[in-house]
Task: structure prediction
Amino acid sequence: MTPAEAQKRIVQLRAEVARHDERYYRQARPEISDFEYDLLKQQLAGLEAEFPQFASTDSPTLRLGDDRAQGFREVAHRQKMLSLDNTYNEAEVRAFHTRLVKLLGRDDLRYTVEPKIDGLAVSLTYEGGRFVRAVTRGKGDKGDDVTANVRTIASIPGELKGGPDVPVPDVVEIRGEIYLTAAEFERINAERASAGEELFANPRNTAAGTIKQLDPAEVAKRKLSIVLYSLGHCEPPVVTTQAALHAHLQVWGFPGVERIWHAGGIDEAWAAIGELDQERRSFAYGTDGAVVKLDDMALQREAGATDKAPRWAIAYKFKPDTARTRLRAITIQVGKTGILSPVAELEPVFLAGSTIARATLHNEEEIRRKDIRIGDLVEIEKAGEVIPAVLRSFPEERPAGAAEFDLPAAVGHQCPVCGGRIAKVEVADEEAQGVAWKCQNYDCSAQRAGRLGFFCSRRGLAIDGVGGVVAAKLVELGHVQDPPDLYDVALETLAALNLGTVEEPRVFGEKNATKVVAAREAARALPLEKWLYALSVPDVGESTARELGRRHRSFADLVDSALLSAVLHKARLVAERELQAPNSRKNPPKSDEDKARRKELCTRLDAEIAALDAGPLAGVPSDIGPAVAASVEEFFASKPGRRLLARLKQLGIDPPGTVIAAGVFTGKTFVLTGTLPTMTRDEAAAKIEAAGGRVSGSVSKKTSYVLAGAEAGSKLEKAQTLGVTVIDEAELLKLLAGD
Result:
């Protein structure tokens, strides 16, 4: 691989890992298994080591994931809450021991081996023995305050119990994992199935999504559980070993892990990992590995930590559960954006606690790359309880007549739902990545149902109760064409909705219908950005919707957007500038006279582009680029877009934008890092935005200021490298005052 190829691949991998981080930590909706994700990060780390000239302190290989969500107060951890380095390899577990022997200068190291719980990490703080706070990991130094939600977990003691030789610390942070038992997960999904709602994918994501709900009463309906196993800040220190900590946790009244192993040396630790692998399926919580920890806490402190993980612990992750079965057929599902997704129909096989009859095949290119054919024996994986996926086929055992899959031929070159035209397109959205086939009929019933389900989802307008089954039935019966039509469906009609069959009816019910009516009315008050995203406007993701909502006062303002016109005008000028450049290789000048004319033209074009950047496009983020501008303009000029706007007007729905008035920071972009002396970062961000500025999460050459507080991290280093102006809180206040 050449350096240029390596740089391109590194950029691709960083973007891909960042996208998966967003789906896992913030959305609790991963689309790949932990194993596949870890392989991506290993590939990235390997390239960064081989080509250090492309290393970055902001690389996902060097920083923690970030689970913070909107609506929660940020709280600093007294002691940073780190992640764990992990491996699937015995040799790397032994290399971990070798590094510690060298670092500590001794080989008589003792370890504990504990289950690695597949849940949501949380830190509980007790002051004077009383429970006062629960905070998620966040980004390590700060997390979300989820105290009200965590108080709904019955097994958490409100007050610590002491005992002989087990004192209660004045202040202590106790770390653990929130999870759902398999039985509770099944109960929740059974309730959702009876209400016609979309089923949750797995217990881990359901627990993570539950703890980030804003209403504790809703959280209490799902019986979350917790297990505690680690220590953060403790004043005064009361334990000296990891083994003693587990004994203390039991006396204090916490639910702990079923079993820990005590190991003298790495050989015993490796044997314990094998025993844990045999026992773990009987545990109440899901486990995906074993954690090997140095037992002596004094040695833990001596070993220290990186910015991301302690050097004194490592997680050995068990290989994902797999099984072999026969691929009977490939069927096609149509999503809310019209993407045709192939699904493997399998001979049922028992795997990881459930019977699997279907699995994802991602897209047609993936099927060809893996050489998967109908009739093949295939290996499927169910890692971390995510949707099963087909890993590979076994060509050496292929039966005669096993057929290659041709998606357009399989569907007769038309949408399998509506019969509309299909076309091959480049996509990068929630449904697919890369090249995919797409139904071109916006009014396809599958797309209508998908859009309605998304419109009502928590990421949309949070109209609980209208999941995939209910949405499909409302569309099928003609009650809903576009999502806003839901407002015209009477309570009586909703209540009488039959989600089953004539022979076996399953009525939606008045209770569920009443909840939907209340939730849809509450959604009227949501801002433009939420509606714009919920309506599935093409190419408009959450961050883009937020930026458009900040720059437009209403849908009418967006339809006649001067900003979008300016974005497209600049794109045309830039294209013309590239075409007419005097040194253009694609379109070289024909003469010296032509070259001189081009120089003069490019000077004028540069001036026009600069005027746009300083004027209507000042401070406009890259989220609002020419592709987005063109897509939004085209959609609202189209027949479906005009129909949607007309329905909103008929319903009296006119969501307001969150337009920020011009101020001293108009056109300026800020990045915040570290802990400020008198205000939180959220408070500082609010002041910046109120003055017309924009707050970004990453530093680039276009960043105007980096606001740095105590313990600022890699963002400060990057700002200094790029020459970006760094200010502190006092300087920010001066700038706000116009000084």
Notes: The radius of gyration is 28 Å. The chain is about 40% helix and 20% strand. The first helix runs from residue 3 to 26. The mean pLDDT is 88.
